[in-house]
Please model this.
Amino acid sequence: MSSTPSTAVLVVVGAGPRATGLLERIAANSPELWDGARELRIHLVDPHPPGPGRIWRHEQSALLRMNSMAEDVTMFTDESSTIEGPVRPGPSLAEWAAQFSGRGPRHTPYAEPADPEVLAELRTLTGADFPTRRAQSAYLDWVFRRTLTELPPSVTVEWHRTTATAVTGPPDGPQYVHLADRATPLTADLVVLAQGHLGSTPAAEHRDHAAFALRHGRFHLPPEFSADADLSGLRPGEHVLLRGFGLAFIDLMALLTEGRGGTYRTEADGTLTYLPSGREPVLHVGSRRGVPYHSKTRYRLQGPRPPLPRHFGPEAVDALLTEGRPLDLRCDVWPLMAKEIGFGHYHELFHAHPERTALPWADFIAAYDRLGWYDDDMAALVATAVPDPADRLDFEALDHPLDGLAFPTADALQEHLREHIAEDVARREDPEFSADLGAFLALLSVYGQLPRLVAAGRLTARSVAERLDGWWHGFFSFLASGPPGFRLRQLLALSRAGIVHFLGADVRIGTDESTGTFTATSSTVPGHIAHATALIEAYLPGPSLDLTEDPLLRDLHRTGALTEEVITDPTHTHRSGLLAVSPTDGHLVDPSLGSPHPRRIALGAPTNSRAVAAFARPRTNAPAFRQNDAVARVLLRALSTTEAGTATSQVDGPPLRV
Model:
């Protein structure tokens, strides 16, 4: 054997922000863990450009925007990050954009985006703006190119603009990553799957609706990523049912109105009026809650940042894990989560708006800390200390705002919901209610603590199914992942113009063979039936290994080389549709081995790590950043000890350069 060290080879399937974040952590940890005498070649496999990947690619409608302010988006670790590797700060999207207007320093490597519309947006972008997805695409492209410059000379990256279709190879030998456009696979020492959010083939209900639409010449769209959806089959004036009132609906709303030539006019009182083009369909929208996601806040904290976590941090999780019994999320965990969110809310209220409180903060927090969230004394404490009910945190009212309400006519519901939406937007844009932002930050903190509790396997199967993957995921998105306020003002204008109609809560979709129409009913307007010739499932595809459109995962699933997360206890079995990985380092659980596969790792949305956000709000100790760092260190250690000659680099072209 030659004394010259062989080249170590890593293949990363997927080149979007998750893969970029992993590369950034490889670059950060290389000075400590990588011997520069040996070469490391990294292959990225993705048909979409590295950095943005598919979801954030530039080639999508300029109407589509982020639901975060520019100052709240970062790809970089900071002082809040609890990681073993080095913290390497970098600019947020807003800080990066400031260079193009001269308001901030230039960031290496410097290059203006080629799209003049994106460059014009970046030159005027402020931290409080909600950028287009194309602007985020430019930022992610820059992060990727910066990361390449930070890799040591012995580490090179090559991008294969194609799709990975399979990975084969023994657990103790080379891995072969098969590509759609070439006969010879890539040979690797280790493989990382980082495909990001994946599409799914339609489930049984959606196939039935598609068959109905085909029989009657109607339009049907199953769950789909909005940027990929083909909406050309919808006719002007056609009545369309949309099931789902979250961000997918907001995107579809924009594409089917402004995207078809409609415009908005701002009136003297600040309200919007929609001016139709005549090419819009008529949209009837409803969901389980019957209301849109809460508007994103557009202000900063008015008081000091709450010191999080306080009630649901590592110590609280440790205590739960030592109880030695199955845990129910709602009964055992939620009271601590709720108390943490409440702490964020009241910390901001007492520090920023003390005139609306009736106790000194020290007295309030001393009592708050010792009481349980559902204690009668807690309710009495809050009622005494916070005189105005509008300043109190009421999860039940937030979660189901239409519960117990019934309207005699659909028109009466329209008026009620327009008032509800207008009040929500006004509150989320008024810094007098900045306690809502304190609660939001605590929500993010709680979210970051949950993966370790889930990974320990202590939650009951029903609790994971109904509470974690069901209620909690929806509740978190409803409160924390809503659209910008301007989108909801547009929704109000569309409602007033008769383009959008609200269906209410607990929407049920049916079909009427006699008329060839889809139907929708809701408990909010008893007896009312809406008919339409089109149905759109206005939400993203859920995780499903059985239905995944990703050919590599589909092949691994078919051949029994991966494990779906299945949680079983004496009363329930939950199949999450997620890829089972080891909690500490993301290695695939291989059923043929009965243990994690030593050479295959998976990260992000398709996995049961449930830390899906590839980028994050600054100073929130993002779970994905922690995972990226841990996995990068595992990879570097493993690759540095791989025997020479295990894998050989197969080069289609020169490594990527900036």
Q: What stands out?
A: The first helix runs from residue 17 to 33. Residues 644-654 have pLDDT under 50 and may be disordered. Residues 47 and 162 are 4 Å apart (CA to CA). The two ends are 35 Å apart (CA to CA).
